[in-house]
Protein backbone atom coordinates (compact mmCIF):
# COMPACT_ATOMS: atom_id res chain seq x y z
CA UNK A 1 0.00 0.00 0.00
CA UNK A 2 1.40 3.37 -1.05
CA UNK A 3 2.51 5.62 1.78
CA UNK A 4 3.19 2.90 4.36
CA UNK A 5 5.91 3.70 6.87
CA UNK A 6 7.93 1.45 9.16
CA UNK A 7 7.16 2.56 12.69
CA UNK A 8 7.20 1.86 16.41
CA UNK A 9 4.72 3.13 18.97
CA UNK A 10 6.61 5.01 21.68
CA UNK A 11 3.61 5.72 23.88
CA UNK A 12 -0.17 5.63 23.73
CA UNK A 13 -2.97 7.05 25.82
CA UNK A 14 -6.74 6.50 25.76
CA UNK A 15 -8.94 9.02 24.00
CA UNK A 16 -12.73 8.90 24.28
CA UNK A 17 -14.24 5.46 24.87
CA UNK A 18 -12.64 3.54 22.02
CA UNK A 19 -9.75 5.54 20.56
CA UNK A 20 -6.05 6.04 21.23
CA UNK A 21 -3.59 8.88 20.76
CA UNK A 22 -0.26 7.45 19.65
CA UNK A 23 3.22 8.90 19.84
CA UNK A 24 4.93 7.13 16.93
CA UNK A 25 8.55 7.00 15.78
CA UNK A 26 8.68 6.44 12.02
CA UNK A 27 11.52 5.75 9.63
CA UNK A 28 10.91 8.69 7.28
CA UNK A 29 8.92 11.25 9.28
CA UNK A 30 10.42 10.93 12.76
CA UNK A 31 7.95 11.46 15.59
CA UNK A 32 4.30 11.75 14.67
CA UNK A 33 1.17 12.14 16.83
CA UNK A 34 -1.63 9.97 15.47
CA UNK A 35 -5.26 9.46 16.41
CA UNK A 36 -6.25 5.80 16.14
CA UNK A 37 -10.03 5.94 16.01
CA UNK A 38 -11.79 2.88 17.43
CA UNK A 39 -8.49 1.13 18.20
CA UNK A 40 -9.67 0.17 21.71
CA UNK A 41 -13.00 -1.18 20.51
CA UNK A 42 -13.83 -4.81 21.29
CA UNK A 43 -13.78 -5.80 17.61
CA UNK A 44 -10.82 -3.70 16.55
CA UNK A 45 -8.09 -5.71 14.73
CA UNK A 46 -5.58 -3.20 16.10
CA UNK A 47 -6.31 -3.83 19.76
CA UNK A 48 -3.17 -5.88 20.41
CA UNK A 49 -0.93 -4.48 17.69
CA UNK A 50 -0.41 -0.85 18.71
CA UNK A 51 2.01 -1.67 21.50
CA UNK A 52 5.57 -0.48 22.15
CA UNK A 53 8.40 -2.57 20.68
CA UNK A 54 6.20 -4.11 17.95
CA UNK A 55 7.43 -3.38 14.39
CA UNK A 56 4.58 -1.90 12.38
CA UNK A 57 3.67 -0.66 8.94
CA UNK A 58 1.47 2.41 9.28
CA UNK A 59 -0.27 4.95 7.09
CA UNK A 60 -1.92 8.18 8.22
CA UNK A 61 -3.53 11.28 6.78
CA UNK A 62 -4.32 14.85 7.75
CA UNK A 63 -2.41 18.00 8.54
CA UNK A 64 -1.36 19.80 11.67
CA UNK A 65 -0.07 18.33 14.90
CA UNK A 66 -2.52 15.40 15.04
CA UNK A 67 -2.82 12.94 12.15
CA UNK A 68 -5.46 10.23 11.65
CA UNK A 69 -4.49 6.58 11.35
CA UNK A 70 -5.61 4.95 8.10
CA UNK A 71 -3.83 1.61 8.26
CA UNK A 72 -1.60 -0.33 10.64
CA UNK A 73 -0.31 -3.87 10.66
CA UNK A 74 2.34 -5.69 12.64
CA UNK A 75 5.20 -6.94 10.45
CA UNK A 76 6.77 -9.07 13.15
CA UNK A 77 6.44 -10.20 16.71
CA UNK A 78 7.10 -7.70 19.48
CA UNK A 79 10.78 -7.55 20.42
CA UNK A 80 10.89 -9.65 23.61
CA UNK A 81 11.91 -7.41 26.49
CA UNK A 82 11.51 -8.25 30.16
CA UNK A 83 12.93 -7.20 33.50
CA UNK A 84 15.67 -4.58 33.25
CA UNK A 85 15.57 -4.76 29.45
CA UNK A 86 11.89 -3.78 29.45
CA UNK A 87 12.49 -0.76 31.70
CA UNK A 88 15.45 0.16 29.49
CA UNK A 89 13.18 0.03 26.44
CA UNK A 90 10.71 2.36 28.16
CA UNK A 91 13.63 4.70 28.87
CA UNK A 92 14.59 4.79 25.18
CA UNK A 93 10.99 5.56 24.25
CA UNK A 94 10.76 8.31 26.81
CA UNK A 95 13.91 10.14 25.79
CA UNK A 96 12.87 9.94 22.13
CA UNK A 97 9.48 11.44 23.04
CA UNK A 98 11.15 14.18 25.08
CA UNK A 99 14.01 15.10 22.74
CA UNK A 100 13.16 14.33 19.10
CA UNK A 101 11.22 17.01 17.22
CA UNK A 102 7.97 16.08 15.53
CA UNK A 103 7.79 15.69 11.76
CA UNK A 104 11.59 15.71 11.42
CA UNK A 105 13.32 12.81 9.71
CA UNK A 106 15.85 10.87 11.78
CA UNK A 107 16.47 8.04 9.33
CA UNK A 108 19.70 6.71 10.84
CA UNK A 109 18.43 7.09 14.40
CA UNK A 110 15.45 4.88 13.54
CA UNK A 111 17.83 2.02 12.75
CA UNK A 112 19.96 2.83 15.80
CA UNK A 113 16.76 2.43 17.83
CA UNK A 114 16.00 -0.97 16.26
CA UNK A 115 19.58 -2.06 16.95
CA UNK A 116 19.33 -0.94 20.59
CA UNK A 117 16.06 -2.84 21.17
CA UNK A 118 17.58 -5.95 19.59
CA UNK A 119 20.66 -5.70 21.82
CA UNK A 120 18.48 -5.22 24.90
CA UNK A 121 16.62 -8.43 24.04
CA UNK A 122 19.83 -10.40 23.51
CA UNK A 123 22.09 -9.33 26.37
CA UNK A 124 21.67 -9.51 30.14
CA UNK A 125 23.42 -6.19 30.77
CA UNK A 126 21.47 -3.33 29.13
CA UNK A 127 24.09 -0.65 29.82
CA UNK A 128 26.22 -0.92 26.63
CA UNK A 129 23.14 -0.76 24.39
CA UNK A 130 21.78 2.26 26.27
CA UNK A 131 25.05 4.15 26.06
CA UNK A 132 25.45 3.43 22.34
CA UNK A 133 21.93 4.65 21.64
CA UNK A 134 22.37 7.81 23.72
CA UNK A 135 25.53 8.62 21.77
CA UNK A 136 23.70 7.97 18.49
CA UNK A 137 20.89 10.27 19.65
CA UNK A 138 23.38 13.03 20.46
CA UNK A 139 24.90 12.66 16.99
CA UNK A 140 21.44 12.94 15.40
CA UNK A 141 20.78 16.12 17.38
CA UNK A 142 23.96 17.65 15.96
CA UNK A 143 25.84 17.45 19.25
CA UNK A 144 29.32 17.19 17.75
CA UNK A 145 32.02 16.31 20.26
CA UNK A 146 35.57 15.32 19.34
CA UNK A 147 36.55 12.56 21.73
CA UNK A 148 39.95 11.91 20.18
CA UNK A 149 41.60 15.34 20.27
CA UNK A 150 42.18 17.79 23.09
CA UNK A 151 40.00 20.87 22.56
CA UNK A 152 42.71 23.08 24.06
CA UNK A 153 45.84 21.98 22.21
CA UNK A 154 44.46 19.96 19.31
CA UNK A 155 46.79 17.10 20.28
CA UNK A 156 45.53 13.51 20.10
CA UNK A 157 44.07 12.20 23.34
CA UNK A 158 46.49 10.16 25.47
CA UNK A 159 44.83 7.23 27.23
CA UNK A 160 47.03 7.80 30.31
CA UNK A 161 46.01 11.44 30.78
CA UNK A 162 42.87 13.01 32.21
CA UNK A 163 40.60 15.52 30.49
CA UNK A 164 37.88 17.82 31.79
CA UNK A 165 34.65 18.25 29.87
CA UNK A 166 33.79 21.82 28.90
CA UNK A 167 30.27 22.23 27.57
CA UNK A 168 30.18 23.57 23.98
CA UNK A 169 33.95 23.15 23.74
CA UNK A 170 34.93 19.54 24.32
CA UNK A 171 37.59 17.84 26.40
CA UNK A 172 40.61 19.77 27.65
CA UNK A 173 43.69 18.22 29.28
CA UNK A 174 43.56 18.58 33.06
CA UNK A 175 45.56 17.60 36.13
CA UNK A 176 42.35 16.97 38.08
CA UNK A 177 41.74 13.31 38.95
CA UNK A 178 38.35 13.08 40.68
CA UNK A 179 35.57 15.27 39.40
CA UNK A 180 32.25 14.56 37.72
CA UNK A 181 33.53 16.37 34.63
CA UNK A 182 36.88 14.55 34.43
CA UNK A 183 37.47 11.59 32.10
CA UNK A 184 40.53 9.54 31.24
CA UNK A 185 41.88 9.31 27.72
CA UNK A 186 40.87 5.64 27.78
CA UNK A 187 37.28 6.69 28.59
CA UNK A 188 37.23 9.06 25.63
CA UNK A 189 38.56 6.44 23.23
CA UNK A 190 35.80 4.07 24.36
CA UNK A 191 33.19 6.80 23.83
CA UNK A 192 34.52 7.45 20.33
CA UNK A 193 34.37 3.78 19.32
CA UNK A 194 31.17 3.10 21.36
CA UNK A 195 32.81 -0.07 22.62
CA UNK A 196 33.12 -0.41 26.39
CA UNK A 197 35.46 -3.17 27.53
CA UNK A 198 35.55 -2.32 31.26
CA UNK A 199 33.06 -1.41 33.96
CA UNK A 200 34.87 1.92 34.46
CA UNK A 201 34.42 2.82 30.79
CA UNK A 202 30.70 2.06 31.03
CA UNK A 203 30.36 4.22 34.14
CA UNK A 204 32.22 7.06 32.41
CA UNK A 205 29.99 6.74 29.35
CA UNK A 206 26.87 6.98 31.52
CA UNK A 207 28.30 10.03 33.28
CA UNK A 208 29.02 11.74 29.95
CA UNK A 209 25.67 11.00 28.29
CA UNK A 210 23.80 12.29 31.35
CA UNK A 211 25.79 15.52 31.20
CA UNK A 212 25.29 15.91 27.46
CA UNK A 213 21.58 15.03 27.40
CA UNK A 214 20.62 17.17 30.39
CA UNK A 215 20.08 20.40 28.38
CA UNK A 216 17.76 18.52 26.02
CA UNK A 217 15.79 16.63 28.67
CA UNK A 218 15.31 19.57 31.01
CA UNK A 219 14.65 19.35 34.73
CA UNK A 220 11.51 17.22 34.64
CA UNK A 221 12.32 13.74 36.04
CA UNK A 222 12.13 10.78 33.68
CA UNK A 223 9.24 8.46 34.59
CA UNK A 224 11.13 5.41 33.34
CA UNK A 225 14.00 6.09 35.78
CA UNK A 226 11.52 6.47 38.64
CA UNK A 227 9.84 3.17 37.75
CA UNK A 228 13.21 1.41 37.51
CA UNK A 229 14.30 2.79 40.89
CA UNK A 230 11.01 1.65 42.44
CA UNK A 231 11.44 -1.83 40.98
CA UNK A 232 15.03 -2.04 42.26
CA UNK A 233 13.94 -1.09 45.79
CA UNK A 234 11.22 -3.76 45.75
CA UNK A 235 13.70 -6.43 44.67
CA UNK A 236 16.14 -5.49 47.42
Automatic annotation (TrEMBL):
InterPro entries named in the record: ARFGAP/RecO (IPR037278), DNA_rep/recomb_RecO_N (IPR022572), NA-bd_OB-fold (IPR012340), RecO (IPR003717), RecO_C (IPR042242)
Keyword DNA repair attributed: yes
Domain DNA replication/recombination mediator RecO N-terminal: 5-76
Keyword Zinc carried by entry: no
Superkingdom per UniProt: Bacteria
Pfam family name, one: RecO_C
Alphabetized UniProt keyword annotations: DNA damage, DNA recombination, DNA repair
UniProt xrefs under HAMAP family: RecO
Family: Belongs to the RecO family.
Job description of the protein: Involved in DNA repair and RecF pathway recombination.
Protein name as annotated: DNA repair protein RecO
Organism: Enterovibrio gelatinilyticus
Organism placement in taxonomy: Bacteria, Pseudomonadati, Pseudomonadota, Gammaproteobacteria, Vibrionales
Amino acid sequence: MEGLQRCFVLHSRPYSETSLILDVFSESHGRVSIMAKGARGKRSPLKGALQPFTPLLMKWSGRGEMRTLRHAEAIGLAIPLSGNALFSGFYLNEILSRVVEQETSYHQLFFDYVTALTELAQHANPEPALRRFELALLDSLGYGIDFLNCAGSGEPVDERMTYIFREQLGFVASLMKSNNLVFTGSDLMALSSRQFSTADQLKAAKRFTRLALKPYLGSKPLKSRELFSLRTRKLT
